[in-house]
Amino acid sequence: MTDAWTRIGLRPTGAGAGGPGSAKRFPDGAHFRIEIPSVEGPRVLEAVLDAARRYDVVVNRVSQGSGAMLLREAELRDMASLGREAGLEVSLFVGPREGFGVGLNARTEDGVAQFGQLRGVRQLEYAVEDVVRSVEAGIRSFLVADEGLLTVLVAMQEAGDLPASCVWKLSVMKAPSNPASLLVLERLGATTANVPSDISSGDLAEMREVSSLPLDLYLESPDALGGIVRGNEIAELVRVGAPLYAKFGLRNSRLLYPSGEHLVEEACAIATEKVHRAAVALEWLQRLGPELVQSGPGAAGLGIPEVDAKLVGRGARDDAAPDGTDTATPLAMKEGS
Predict the structure, then answer these.
(1) What class is the 21-98+113-301 domain?
(2) Could you tell me how far CA 311 lies from the centroid of its own chain?
(3) Which residues pair with 248 in a beta bridge?
């Protein structure tokens, strides 16, 4: 197509012309990875994995938004086992958060920016416990939307209280809009950072110029984040933003948070279509950027779950007593802990 553009006196943008791009890469040398967000529990994760096989898409990471606090320990273990087997990162949102609390400010039109923050030491303590509980179940990746919580978790990790393999994914609720803000989050210990869904390729290039931190970008976002639909731009965005997590939300779909059994069928359908959207985008990438490389399963730098062999295969029904109580023993209560 380049010759056609030249004949009419226009210069291609670089979207399909192999323009200059980032020289930075993931640890395995890849340019990009695929993330499917709002994977709210084991059944939804199974739907993602089924769709990935059907569409021949490698999903490198799934993330969840309702919060690990709303999943039973057996469900956390199930997600960890599924992720471990597939070689993908399972990233769970840390709960609670201000928008789920008894205060009203974070649920008002003007206060919504505080939705993901933690109110006081009490919520901070619950959030840390949420991470510890999930780590015991094998989860190694966490979505964080509060800078204070991030500093606490990084300090705990440095002290050996949390595994070195844990990764801290900064939520879109804390998306940096300029390179200076990105550097602040990186210095605080973020492992990856979500940038705004409507970022231009030029703004993305400015972010990439100052930092090697992997960036997360919705190529399609839910309506609450603007309803961006730009999967066709994947080659251009990966070229300038590498290393980049290409995220696929879904416009014109139901908001799921907090999710649960009452929404699980819809959540599975939405997640399946997200994988389909990723498959379409990858066809665009093959057309306009075939030289760009995706990470494979189990790639270096992913927060792959670490599953205790004794717990593998123990589903939500297997560790419940006849009266419905959970008989699993938390790590903190085991002998010698």
Answers:
(1) alpha beta
(2) 25
(3) 220
